[in-house]
Amino acid sequence: MTTMESLIGLVNRIQRACTMLGDYGGGADGALPTLWEALPSVAVVGGQSSGKSSVLESVVGRDFLPRGSGRVTLRSIGIVTRRPLVLQLHKTEEGKPEYAEFLHLPKRIFTDFSLVRKEIQDETDRLTGKTKQISPVPIHLSIYSPFGHWRWFGWPVVARLTNLGNLQWMKFMAAAKVVDLASACTVEGWRRRQLLAMAGVVNLTLIDLPGLTKVAVEGQPDNIVQDIENMVRSYVEKNIIEPEPNINGLDTYHTCRSALVTITVFPFSFMPNCIILAITPANQDIATSDAIKLAREVDPTGERTFGVLTKLDLMDKGTHALDVLEGKAYKLQHPWVGIVNRSQADINKNVDMIIARRKEKEYFANSLDYSHLASKMGSEYLAKLLSKHLESVIRARIPSITSLINKTIDELESEMDNLGRPIAVDAGAQLYTILELCRAFDKIFKEHLDGGRPGGDRIYGVFDHQLPAALRKLPFDRHLSLQNVKKVVSEADGYQPHLIAPEQGYRRLIESSLNYFRGPAEASVDAVHFVLKDLVRKSIGETQELKRFPSLQAELAAACYQALERFREDSRKTAIRLVDMEASYLTVDFFRKLPQDIEKTGNPSTITADRYSEGHFRRIASNVSSYIVMVSEMLKNTLPKATVHCQVREAKRSLLNHFYTQIGRKEGKQLYQLLDEDPALMERRVQCAKRLELYKNARDEIEAVSWAR
């Protein structure tokens, strides 16, 4: 069966890994998934000068938090908290030394807690400067202390503890199992040696947050009040994604297995995941408490709020706070706990925290108002209460956390696959990478042309719609009008009119008509060219591997466009050649039918008489028009073939051939420049890798722990 220590220690280790790898929770759209917000924690919430940080010191049993100026003024009283302090208490084995350790200074151990205070202040100033600004980036502090260990104190402390005689000292030392009684059996011996007193911590993680305030003090921006509240809310409102049961049994979900537990992953909902330690001074009206007001908003049922009442000893004589402590004035699901912190005079005199604990116990035990609650009052009771509750919350949340971790690992690994691996420094490997990226692009481009992806059908649309429509719009009606035909034929005859058929007039009319086909032919070539360019652009955008390399994208696009320009020029020449071929050699069979028609009339003199009539010229226009229609039908078939052969076929076969030749001639530095990634993408890969490492470490930590189910 897993102990409380292993469960809280598990969350402690994961929290430390979160901070080390940059996971502080929160984030906007597109931000990386956060594990921090899925971990149960205890957030200490209270107004400035409510005594919340003093409560932390009482729980730890050490004076280690920064304070304001040494002068006792209204402004200086209170603890300066400008960054969240994640305080992790670790109970170690008896006999081991007590020490503190910061996450940002992993190799340094602090045994002098005055230096801990200084380091907290220095680390806060490192991010916020010497101003009164705040920062959401937490400071991680771990304190390792054996529960029930013996701490050394000088004689002045002994004198304040008790007035025991020599015999009583001997009994005390015997109970304490001190072996060397010879040198410690008298009060004078203790003066020379020092006294050992009880101290220690329980396993617990607390987050000390900046105190809520209503007014910005001198040196703070006007929005500091809202900024502090937003930061506090980001902690107390944090949620864990909780799987919902599949009530209807209609859907099937995958199963996450580990050495600890098997979980079926159902649809997710959000569950509150932060225990709120609401600190309120007893000499203040509970209705005006900043902590209670905030807790009521985020936890209206009071299920995750622990109320702590401080400064009970500072209440006016004849008044008490029993209505609050007994849950009558403001009821919570958990009992209220009263705390008596050190007074400012005690702080100025450096009264030890152990002495303060003893005085706190004596206060509740001897109080006429609170003696019946003494066993459930004080900082030691609060620490044990929170530790036990935190352990139960962690135990309940572990399945959901495991499910979330497995799901997020899959998502991050998928994103890492899309982002790709870091680029090798070897020139040969870089060349291979570029060629592989080009092949990936070429594959997608061909899929567009062959129908595997949309876009290739637009080329068929050019041939099936645009080209026929352009041919139909050619101005043959105007060109073959009676007036123009008469003009062309007359000019072709010159000084001697034609004898039978105006062959020169026919040729001039046909050749000038065929020239109109050049426009649609070139337009078809251009239309296919623009479709191919657009498919290149789309293919580059759809090649996921290329997204990392904007320089290579630009170089590849330029090379493709150059190749397509060459293909277009070849295709244009071929298309124009097809039109010119029709003008170079007319289809004789079509015109040989004309004399036969004359012979069938049986009256040549009639034909000769009509040679210069309107009917004659209309017949010429009709014959030329019929021939042009025949040629148009042929070009509708041959122009697409020429265009596909010269542009589409070549784009599929040799779009990147010239680019490959150029790449092969580049040196290592030039290749590296092509593989110069987008800085934002490089940063995203680094962050994804860190976050993936975090989640995998968390999974390993959870699988290494077993607990009773």
Strand order of the largest sheet: 4-3-5-2-8-1-13-14-15
- Per DSSP, the total helix count is 25
| Residues in β-strands, percent | 5-15%
Number-wise, the strands total 15
Termini, distance in Å?
9 Å
**Helical/strand content category:** alpha/beta
Q: Report mean pLDDT, rounded to a whole number.
A: 78
In which range does the helix fraction lie?
40-55%
Unreliable residue stretches: 70-79, 148-164, 175-199, 243-270, 596-600
Radius of gyration: 45 Å
Oligomerization state: single chain
Topology:
Blueprint: H1 4-20, E1 41-46, H2 52-60, E2 85-92, E3 99-102, E4 105-110, H3 113-128, E5 139-146, E6 149-153, H4 155-161, H5 166-175, H6 187-193, E7 195-199, E8 204-208, H7 224-236, E9 239-243, E10 255-257, E11 262-264, E12 268-272, E13 274-281, H8 290-298, E14 305-310, H9 322-325, E15 337-338, H10 344-348, H11 353-366, H12 379-419, H13 427-450, H14 457-472, H15 476-479, H16 482-493, H17 503-514, H18 518-542, H19 550-584, H20 588-601, H21 604-609, H22 614-654, H23 657-664, H24 668-674, H25 679-704
Parallel strand pairs: 1-8, 1-13, 2-5, 13-14, 14-15
Antiparallel strand pairs: 2-8, 3-4, 3-5, 6-7, 9-12, 10-11
Main location: cytoplasm
Subcellular location: Cytoplasm, Cytoskeleton, Phragmoplast
Domain Dynamin-type G: 36-399
